[in-house]
Amino acid sequence: MPAHHLRFAVNCSILFTELPLLERPAAAKAAGFDAVEFWWPFAAAVPKVSELTAFIAAIRDAGVYLAGLNFFAGDMAGGDRGVVSWPARSAEFRDNVDVVAEIAAATGCRSFNALYGNRIAYLDRGVQEETAVANLTFAATAMARIGGTVLVEAVSGPHPYPLRTAADVVSVLDRVQSERAVRNLAFLADLYHLTVNGDDVAKVLAEHAERIGHVQIADVPGRHEPGTGDMALDGHLSQLEQAGYQGWVGLEYVPSGTSGLSFEWLPRDRRAASPEPDPTREGIL
Predict the structure, then answer these.
(1) Which candidate among 63, 88, 278, 280 keeps its CA 20 to 30 Å from the CA of 245?
(2) What 3-state class would DSSP assign to 130?
(3) Given 23, 37, 51, 252, the catalytic residue
(4) Domains identified in the chain, total number
(5) Structural domain includes residue 161
(6) Are 110 and 282 within 8 A, CB to CB?
(7) Half-sphere exposure of 194 (CA within 13 A, CB side)
């Protein structure tokens, strides 16, 4: 049984995929949740105004809080995992930051995930790292104006994504914070990716709890709902709660059956949460 005071948000980019995207926030609400999160929900970094308006309306009409949103991350289906470290796409990323700020202003969202981007073999590693520092600084500066936090995560899978462990992520955060005096960066602790990549999650939570601004979960193996694998998820969530974590826990898993049945591990009376958290306490920052 998960820790009692944590707040849960449904990732509507990986759950309720049997429904059109704009119907998913209402489906999450009907399942008893007050909050949702999304990967970047549009094909382009700068969508049409009509698309943007419809997305914001879907969140508002469902009566849910947008607890987390990814910046544009390239062609995710094609294997891209972000563009933050890609020099040729910096202008595109920065244009996207402006759009994300619009969504934040309209929804109250304050947590924004910046996927770092795959390693580009023909580019010097240092060039990619410098690009990432500059773009994370740009995004964090923009989000600071609204009290927002930019998140960075480790990712698993076959893609040449260079941030695999908590230590990899923290080193990036440390560099941006020390070189650019940026304060509103935080670690997105995706417990699934960390486990798959071989990190000792209990140790990560003990060492970096104060850096965590957002959490995402899925069981291992399979990336399905809690209880379908052998991750010590209850222990991890209890550890987070005991450390004082006050941010959201995103349910970012592929349901093993229907989306609705995949929530049975979480009693319905534990799914609801205050839709308007204090934006200055989106983690332990």
Answers:
(1) 63
(2) helix
(3) 252
(4) 1
(5) yes
(6) yes
(7) 27
Q: Is residue 37 flagged as an active site residue?
A: no
User: For 170-191, what is each residue's pLDDT tens digit?
Assistant: 999 999 999 999 999 999 999 9
Residue among 37, 153, 225, 282 flagged as catalytic: 153
Pair 226, 217: CB distance under 8 Å: yes
Strand-pair partners of 248: 7
Tens-place pLDDT, residues 65-75? 999 999 999 99
Among residues 161, 76, 169, 164, which one has the least CA distance to residue 118? 161
Residues 218, 253 contacting (CB under 8 angstroms): yes
Q: 104 lies in which domain range?
A: 7-281
Task: Tell me the residue length of the chain.
Answer: 285
pTM of the entire predicted model:
0.94
The answer to whether residue 104 sits within a structural domain is yes
Tokens of 204: 């990560």
Residue 2 counted as domain residue: no
- The CATH number linked to 196 is 3.20.20.150
What SS3 state is found at 65? strand
Task: Please report whether residue 1 resides in a domain.
Answer: no
